Each structure stands twice: as structure tokens, then as C-alpha cells.
Amino acid sequence: MSGRARLMWDDAVSGYDFGDSHPMDPVRLDLTMGLVRAFGLDSAVDVRSAKAAGASTLRLVHREDYVAAVRAASADPAAADQSYGLGTVDDPAFAGMHEASALIAGLSVGAAEAVWRGESAHAVNFTGGLHHAMPGGAAGFCIYNDPALAIARLLELGAERVAYVDVDVHHGDGVQAAFWEDPRVLTVSLHEHPRTLFPQTGWPEETGGGAGEGGAVNVALPAGTGDAGWLRAFHSVVPELLADFRPQVLVTQHGADTHFEDPLAHLAVSLDAQRAVMASCHELAHEYAEGGRWVALGGGGYAVVDVVPRSWTHLVGIAAHAPVDPESVIPSSWRDEVYARTRQLGPARMTDGRTPSWQPWDAGYDPADRLDQAVLATRRAVFPLRGLLA
Fold first, then answer.
1. What is the pLDDT of residues 57-101, one digit of tens each?
2. What residues are annotated to the active site?
3. Which of 88, 212, 301, 362 could bond 308 through an S-S bridge, CB–CB 3.0 to 4.6 Å?
4. Separation CA 2–CA 254 (nearest Å)
């Protein structure tokens, strides 16, 4: 394996733009790459673009009629077919939709290929993580499901065990659906409870079907969960499952919308806890994946100035084995860029000033605590199916 991490980037990703009033503002991507450069991390990684995902790659997950519908909406947004989820409030059609979406998918597929072929042990595509798209439809700001496409490409290349861990505030429903019956893929999603948040799926009882039974794992967290509960849930479920599954590749999705400032959800997680989970995913890849193979993706995140760029810059630094000190002062050049682009004042440091900690599960649990109830529901639903003690 190469010791140099790969960072997938192409300026054209800013073309993934649903319009001025949409919460998924592509400025979050440009500002993240700007902050990566401001900290000099672009010299610590191998920055590469990749070809947009072609028809044969997209068909690994998506139906041919759906891809045709995206192409048609891309050429004529006014004619978007809403039966495919296109031209809706969540997923407005825009000129160039297919090209921008296929590029992001191609970057994630390129990351997976680089890791599988040993060109890099770790690869990051923070522009990806669009986990809601289904085989036959757009959903939740997602046109093509790049995490599922990256995993499907790994399987096509010969991988027999791929683990996917999704810590976005929303359930990773599209990835779960793509591999629901596939025992080669373990999907784990930690998300806000479906009673209070889109897409209203991700109940602990959703455990996979057919040969894939026990391959879908869902931790549905109570609204208001903060650092200690979020970290406790992660460490009470993910390491044990990865130790059992022993993936050849670990794919992770790091939506920044768990943050307490995010306007579209109801968890209360800090940047410092997000960074801690990124570091844990890195460690778990080295401990359980073959050769430390790790593909790390972005995802949601709608506090586009204060949170997203800092969160994903930490992700790049961790993957590069050049972590950014949370106490680091953010370069003024980047803050000037923020003001010029958004007329907002950028954050001053790479921390929210928190020191995250949690109680390990094996120290005992409180049956009256809502967070512990959520963890226990997941363990009871899926661990016995995998021969593990709940």
C-alpha cells in the first residue's frame, strides 16, 4: 500500500447546485477544499480527479430507465419526471444535473479503486456520501448513490467483504437498500430516530433480508443526543461488528449534519466528537480492514460555513496521517475567502472547545436511559443473527 492518502477533487463538483434557496449549497465544498489548502493538507495527500461514472458503472446500482430520466432532466430541467423524484422540492432539476452527479459518483468510485488496487491505503471524497438515492429514484438531495456505487465497484473488482459505516444524522437508506440481501456487505447506520427525521427509516428491526439477514444494522438515536451518547452508541456497536466481519475494505460516510448548529436535524453533537469518530474509523480500518483500506466520504451538512469545512478538513487530515490540532487557529486567508463568498464571518479555531468522552457499554447500561434503550434495541435485533451476544 502507498503511504500517501488520496484526496478526490474536481472544481466541477460545484456544478451540483440545486439553486440559491436550497440548503445543499455547493459553497460548502469549495470552502472545505479552501480550508484543506489553507492548512497545507493538499501537499500531504495525492489530489486526483476521476472520470465521471459512465453508464455501465451507474447500472451497478441504478436502473437504466432512471439514468435516462436524469439525463433528460439534465438536458431540459422543465421536463423533469417527478415520478423519479426529479424536479421536486428536495431534488430540483437543474441543467447539467447528470454530469455533476456522475462526476461525484466517479470520484467515489475512483477512491474505491485506488484503495482496492493498493495505490493508497486511504482515500477521501468529501463531495460524496449521497446516500439516499435509490435504484430507481432521487431522494433527499441525492441523485446518484455514490457510496453504493463505490461498494458495488469493489465487489465487481473481487472484494468479498465490505463494511459501510454511516454516521450522517439521516439514515443511510439507499445504501442499505442496495445491499439488503447481499451477505458480502455489512451496512451500519447511526442516525436520528425515524420518528423525528427524514427518511423515516432505519429502525433497529431493519436487519437485512434473505442471504443478507443480519447485514443491516441501525442505531436510531433519540433527538437531542449529544457527544457522550453519540460516542457511546458508536463504540457500543461498530467495533464489535467490524471485529466479527473483518472487512477487506471499510467505507465510511461522515455527514456533518449531526452537529448542534445544523438547521435540518435535532442531534447536539460537536465538531470535536465528529473528529473523534473520524479518528476511530481510521483506527478501526487499520485494525480490521485488510491493509488498512479505508474510503471516507462526506454527506449531509447544512451549516455550510461554521461546521462543514472544519469537519471535513479534519477528515482529510486524519486520513493523511497529518491530523489538524483542534486548537489550531484558522488562517485569516480562509476567513477572508469565507466573507468574500458568503458575507459571513468564518470560525476562528478548529474546535468547538469540547473534550468528548463516553462510558463503554461493557461497564453496564441503564434500562431507563433513552440512549441505552436505543443501543440495546440494535444489539438485540442484530447481534444474535451474527452469532454475537446482545
1. 999 999 999 999 999 999 999 999 999 999 999 999 999 999 999
2. 132
3. 301
4. 23
